[in-house]
Amino acid sequence: MHEMDVIGVRVEAPSNQPVVLLREVGGDRYLPIWIGAVEATAIAFAQQGVEPPRPLTHDLMRDVLAATGQQLDEVQIVDVKEGIFFASLVFASGVEVSARPSDSIALALRTGSRIVASADVLEMAGISAPEEQDDEVEKFREFLDHVTPEDFEEP
Questions:
Q1: 111 vs 124: CA distance, rounded Å
Q2: CA torsion, points 55, 61, 65, 66, in degrees to nearest 10?
Q3: Positive/negative CA dihedral, 140, 35, 26, 125
Q4: DSSP secondary-structure letter at 114?
Q5: What is the average pLDDT value for the chain, to the nearest integer?
Q6: Which of 19, 37, 50, 145 would bridge 152 by S-S if both were Cys, CB 3.0 to 4.6 A apart?
Q7: In the prediction, which pLDDT does 11 show?
Q8: Are strands 96-99 and 114-117 parallel, antiparallel or unpaired?
Q9: What is the pTM assigned to this prediction?
């Protein structure tokens, strides 16, 4: 398993489909995962430290875990089939629960849990970005600095 950082979310043109971008820690591979608008908003909220007036689903899940004494150890991106990614929530108790990567990432950001991707997933769907392409990544980061959760709302 390879540890991943969440770079951020953006809307891919021209499809207007949100995508979350993960980067391999200590590596040069990126993992783009297309997600839904609601999940994109949840991830953006968590990254920006936005506390909604009422808990979103991922906030509720974090609170339920805390109230029941459960700890989410890590989120694993375990497979990709026909462009669809699969993840597992791995708890300190050893229990694993299958989940969508978008929900898993939103929950991991709220709980401070580690996000990892399997070597097979990175081999199949990872994109290498050598150092000379870092300026493109920097442009993407600049975009993320100015994007708001409202950018992901349906028109």
A1: 28
A2: -10
A3: negative
A4: E
A5: 88
A6: 37
A7: 85
A8: unpaired
A9: 0.81
Rounded Cα gap, residues 96 and 81, in angstroms: 20
Of 1, 2, 7, 62, which Cα lies nearest the Cα of 27?
A: 2
The string of pLDDT tens digits covering residues 117-140 is: 999 999 999 998 765 555 666 666
Tell me the three state secondary structure of residue 129.
coil
- Pairwise CA distance, residues 9 & 32, whole Å: 9
Q: State how far the Cα of 37 lies from the Cα of 76, in Å rounded to an integer.
A: 22
Distance CA 146, CA 155 (A): 19
* DSSP secondary structure string for all residues of 36-72: -HHHHHHHHHHHHT---SS--HHHHHHHHHHHTT--E
From the list 135, 155, 139, 131, the residue with the least C-alpha distance to 10 is 139
Least confident of 21-25, 45-49, 74-78, 151-155: 151-155
